[in-house]
């Protein structure tokens, strides 16, 4: 089984309407469609671009305004997924439940279904500045190409949750991210590599690039998309199938061979998933 994936290095810049946002999203989706991608990953928090539309005084909208765009956001991605026949992982969008904000990843299936995964681990900035709530459960998603999971940025820095995803059968982890400097970017990137080695899975990650000069905490972005593999003989020596140019506005694409994962789990130079010492620590399966 093979899966072609594209990851979008989404360029944040000031816009003046939802229609501008929709046109930019559609552009990236069409680029991925031209490369015949089956899954397309957008970054975490890319819909904060909608805050730059501003109010009647030209001031950026507050984070609390983003849930008012949820219906339009979902309709846009749902329509594009149906139109193109691709699975669209619409990064994350801020949703609201019972007065609490959540950083929520969305999976849009070609048949119109929508899957959701709330961010599970919330950074100090998200708590202090945005009063963001944390999700309370891990989802895995069945697709006609295999089982996947979506963990958002900071989530991938916690090995336990990825162990759980792998134990539930996920072979591909999508990790949408948003980081504002090199330190944050490399924390996410290095831990993505660690998760592929520990669990013998693929990780597809990407981040926002560009800037929103009027939006607090979104003025700086440092991002790069990558498709990351285990470090073993069937794969590239550095565990990178493809990566974008840092902070460039682009889409990267690669093919994932799921049979290679089964091969290295059985006969790899190391067999990290099989060799877990579950007599000493938790067996998440």
UniProtKB/TrEMBL annotation:
InterPro entries: C-N_Hydrolase (IPR003010), C-N_Hydrolase_sf (IPR036526), UPF0012_CS (IPR001110). Residues 3-258 form the CN hydrolase domain. The keyword Transcription does not apply. SUPFAM superfamilies: Carbon-nitrogen hydrolase. Signal peptide: none annotated. It comes from the Bacteria. The keyword Hydrolase applies. Keywords: Hydrolase. GO terms for molecular function: hydrolase activity. Belongs to the carbon-nitrogen hydrolase superfamily. NIT1/NIT2 family. This is Carbon-nitrogen hydrolase family protein. It comes from Paenibacillus alginolyticus.
């Amino acid at each position: 089984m093979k899966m072609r994936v594209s990851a979008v290095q989404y360029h944040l810049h000031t816009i003046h309407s939802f229609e501008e946002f929709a046109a930019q999203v559609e552009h990236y989706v069409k680029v991925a469609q031209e490369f015949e991608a089956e899954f397309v990953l957008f970054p975490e928090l890319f819909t904060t671009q909608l805050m730059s539309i501003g109010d009647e005084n030209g001031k950026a909208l507050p984070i609390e305004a983003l849930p008012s765009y949820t219906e339009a956001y979902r309709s846009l991605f749902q329509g594009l997924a149906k139109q193109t026949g691709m699975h669209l992982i619409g990064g994350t969008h801020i949703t609201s439940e019972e007065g609490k904000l959540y950083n929520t990843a969305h999976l849009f299936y070609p048949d119109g279904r929508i899957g959701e995964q709330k961010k599970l681990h919330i950074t100090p900035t998200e708590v202090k500045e945005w009063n963001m709530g944390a999700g309370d459960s891990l989802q895995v998603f069945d697709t006609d190409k295999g089982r996947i999971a979506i963990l958002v940025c900071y989530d991938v820095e916690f090995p336990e949750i990825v162990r759980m995803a792998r134990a539930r059968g996920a072979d591909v982890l999508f990790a949408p991210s948003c980081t504002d400097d090199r330190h944050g970017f490399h924390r996410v990137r290095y831990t993505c590599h660690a998760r592929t080695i520990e669990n013998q899975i693929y990780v597809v990650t990407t981040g926002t690039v560009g800037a929103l000069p009027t939006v607090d905490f979104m003025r700086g972005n440092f991002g790069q998309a990558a498709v990351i593999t285990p470090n073993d003989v069937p794969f590239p020596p550095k565990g990178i199938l493809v990566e974008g140019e840092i902070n460039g506005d682009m889409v990267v694409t690669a093919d994932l061979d799921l049979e290679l994962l089964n091969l290295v789990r059985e006969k790899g130079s190391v067999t990290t998933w099989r060799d877990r010492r579950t007599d000493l620590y938790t067996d998440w399966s």
